[in-house]
Every structure is written in C-alpha cells, then in structure tokens.
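QA checklist item 7 of 12: single-chain prediction sanity check.
[x] sequence parsed
[x] length recorded as 235
[x] structure emitted
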Amino acid sequence: MLLRVQDLTVHYGKAMALDRVSLEVADGAVVSIIGANGAGKSTILKAVSGLTPVTSGTISFRDRSIAGLKTPATVKLGLAHVPEGRKLFPFLTVENNIRLGASTRKDRNGIKKDMEEVFNYFPVLETRCAQKAGTLSGGEQQMLAIARGLMAKPKLLMLDEPSLGLAPLIVASLVPVIKTIHQRGVGVLLVEQNIPLALQVADTGYALRVGRIVLKGPINEFKTSQVVKEAYLGG
C-alpha cells in the first residue's frame, strides 16, 4: 500500500479538525476526498505531508511510519503536496519555480528530462519560462504549482483543491493531466469541492463531513449514492 492513514485525529487548539479518519491509497491509484468547505479535507493532506501536528493515529507511506516527519523528509521519500492556493514564489520566474520542485534531487539529467515532461503536460509554461510567476493567470499558476510538484518525482502527488477559482474550461483541462499522471504510475490523492471533477478522475472516493468519513468505496458507487447526491450534488 502506498499510503495508509489509520484513526487520524487532529486538533487546532481545542477544536477537533479530524476525528479518527482512516483511508488508503494503493500504488498508482487516484483517490478523491470530497466534502464541503471546512470538512477537514486539507487538514488530512497537511498532516500527511508534515505541515500539521497529529494528535493521534498513524500515517504510513510505502510501509514506513511518517507521522511527525518534517515536510522535506516526506518529499525525499516520494510524497509531493500541491497546496490549496498554489503557494508559488510570485517574484521568481516560472522556470525557477519549477526548478525549486526538484531541490531535493541531484540527478541533473533526470531533472532536465522531467522538465521536458512537465512542459509536455503544460506547453504554455514553456512559453512563459522567463516570466514572473505572479504575472500568470490563475489557471497558469495552477499548472505551475502542479508542475513544481511533479519535479519532485513523487510516488504520490497530493492535490489540494486544484480547481478552486478556475474557469470551467481550465478545470476541464486538468482532467486529462491527472489521468496521464496516473497512467505513468504516480498515485494521486485529490481533495476537491468540485465533485464532478473528483468523480471523473478517481478510482476510489472518501466523503468527509465535519472531520469524519461518512462514505467510502469505489467511485462508481459515489456516482449513484444518495448520500453524495443530497450532500454534495444538490439533490
């Protein structure tokens, strides 16, 4: 198993953000976590990547316990986190932002090859290489954030609300990219409020409500689930 989270509980001060959450991501799978704003979806990713302290529970990545590890250590193990809001360096160029994703790597030839690959995913970034990241459109910035994450050469890519604030046409363009990443053997853990997007790309889904898992299973079951229809699709 690529990622296994068991009975994960996280507090922000006295407030409980996650209550005994358990989930799994198999090697090369695409798993979606859906839920309303404030349900705790982003907290799961932050806990996995070492950005948020864990109150209790276990997190295993490639059969190794990573709960409590700092983010640079989880990146070296093969876990990349593309955060909500992109968190780019706006005054650095597109190229430098991409190269920062490979900051833990030493294989120059591999880095060069992977840069060519991310430009195949997002051709517009190659034309913007010398442009400052902060001058890109919202959609281009999201492409850059994903490209930066891929440069870490992850075994698992965690995407936090990649569609947030984007036009429908740009959101639609993310679908083939996520599917191609998956086809090349990279696992994807996708957090989304955009339920139709999540249902298009995932193999397995988890529905989160107020810090608890209320539904899990194959994504086809989500498409026909009354719980999902009532809670997330408006009926």
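[x] summary fact logged: The chain is about 40% helix and 25% strand.
[ ] second reviewer sign-off
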